[in-house]
Design goal:
401 residues, alpha/beta, Aspartate Aminotransferase, domain 1, Aspartate Aminotransferase, domain 2, 8-stranded mixed beta sheet, 5-stranded antiparallel beta sheet, 15 strands, 40% helix, 17% strand, globular, NHTrfase_class1_PyrdxlP-BS
């Protein structure tokens, strides 16, 4: 029999890393030995004590029973688009030109980038930041142009760094606010400065606002597109985080800016949207009930996360060799490790010895010479407390050895 030839994967997959999931492979191996695991690595609220609101679930079940089980419209069902538009207007976004519903915010990000950039061009992305952007840009053969968030300034985007990194091949600036992995909430002044750079240099702004309702300390959220009617902006959001339904895979993009500026770009995105038919059809029926219905769950979620955030910051900062900026939103913290070995080794040895799973900072990008790890503070106080005690004891040994 002829030996089958190995199937060679495409080169474009070579540089794609996804540390958030990569660490799971390692953890699974440890878990298989019977060790007790403490998972502080996955941003999925439904794995912990958070549940999708009943009325959001009911809307999908009702849609299925009503036979909305065929393909949906490519841009999304009209009632969902109306509700998304009304909410965006309430946030102060005025020059809305298009709204499209997608398979999670992830697909909206993919569509917005795919329709915009060519190989040889580049996109400014925050470092540290969510690795999906790099993965998509890699697939497109487009260069990531990293700009830094300033840890000494509460992880605010470094506006001077953004201005310095724009070149004649730069097409867009990605903003993730609140950010994953730092949990930092950008202030209005910084956001305005980013919009000013985009206006001056003719860039599209892609703003990922998936955590915009998970904000602590009663701080006011500023939606980036509300700061200018003149800059082309695509705002990403969805049901995954604030409505505790990541498995619905429902997200969206809102395109704003002057009609004549964004018209061709919108048509390019719609070509891609038509080619992939539609987002999950029944799931789209949850959008209007979610955005316009009872938000009682959100108060409880934010209160719970605030307690867990406070505990995280307090316990981690009490550890010798760790400094942690307090997150303003989302459910992530990105503590700094004062160690002289790579954080990938720290995370790998930590899970092996203690069963505590965190993602190393290198998976999100970080300033050269610095080491971090990301914790997800979704788990219960009891789990977090045990995990942080184990981290404290482990770090002492790690530093000594
Ligand atoms: C910053 C950010 N954007 C997008 C996503 C993906 O969202 P979705 O589930 O809507 O695809 C995540 C998920 O963790 C995220 O952290």
């Amino acid at each position: 029999m002829k030996v089958p030839m190995k199937v060679q994967p495409a080169k474009r997959t070579e540089n794609i890393t996804y540390a958030v999931r990569d660490v799971v492979v390692l953890a699974d191996g440890i878990a298989a030995t019977g060790k007790e695991m403490l998972y502080l690595n996955i941003g999925d609220p439904n794995l912990f004590d958070y549940r999708t609101p009943e009325h959001v679930i009911a809307a999908v079940v009702d849609a299925m029973k009503a036979n909305h089980c065929g393909y949906g419209p490519s841009s999304g069902i009209p009632d969902a688009r109306r509700a998304i538009g009304a909410e965006a207007e309430a946030k102060g976004i005025r020059a809305i030109q298009d709204i499209f519903v997608t398979t999670g915010a992830s697909e909206a990000i993919d569509v917005a980038l795919t329709a915009l950039v060519n190989p040889g061009e580049n996109v400014l992305v925050p470092v540290p930041g969510y690795p999906l952007y790099g993965a998509i840009l890699n697939k497109l053969g487009v260069q990531e142009n990293p700009y830094y968030l300033d840890e000494s300034n509460g992880w605010q985007p470094d506006v001077a760094d953004i201005a310095a990194k724009v070149n004649d091949k730069t097409r867009a600036i990605v903003v993730i606010n609140p950010n994953n992995p730092t949990g930092s909430l950008s202030d209005r002044r910084t956001l305005q400065a980013i919009m000013d750079i985009a206006a001056e240099r003719g860039l599209v702004v892609l703003t990922d606002e998936i955590y915009d309702k998970l904000i602590f300390d009663r701080r006011k959220y500023v939606s980036l597109a509300s700061l200018s009617d003149d800059v082309p902006v695509v705002t990403f959001n969805g049901l995954s985080k604030a409505y505790l339904a990541p498995g619905f895979r429902i997200g969206w993009g809102i395109v704003s800016g002057p009609a004549e500026v964004v018209g061709e770009y919108i048509e390019a995105m719609n070509k891609l949207l038509r080619a992939r038919l539609s987002a999950h059809h029944p799931g789209q029926y949850a959008i209007a009930p979610a955005l316009e219905g009872d938000h009682a769950h959100l108060g409880e979620v934010v209160a719970k996360l605030t307690r867990r955030r406070d505990m995280t910051v307090q316990m981690l900062n009490a550890i010798d060799g760790i400094d942690c900026v307090s997150p303003g939103g989302a459910f992530y913290a990105f503590p700094r490790l004062h160690i002289d070995r790579p954080d990938s080794e720290f995370a790998a040895e930590l899970v092996g010895e203690t069963g505590v799973v965190v993602v190393p900072g290198s998976g999100f990008g970080q300033a050269p010479g610095t080491q971090h790890f990301r914790v997800v503070f979704l788990p219960s106080e009891e789990v977090l407390e045990r995990a942080y005690r184990k981290i404290e004891a482990f770090l002492k040994k790690f530093k000594a050895g």
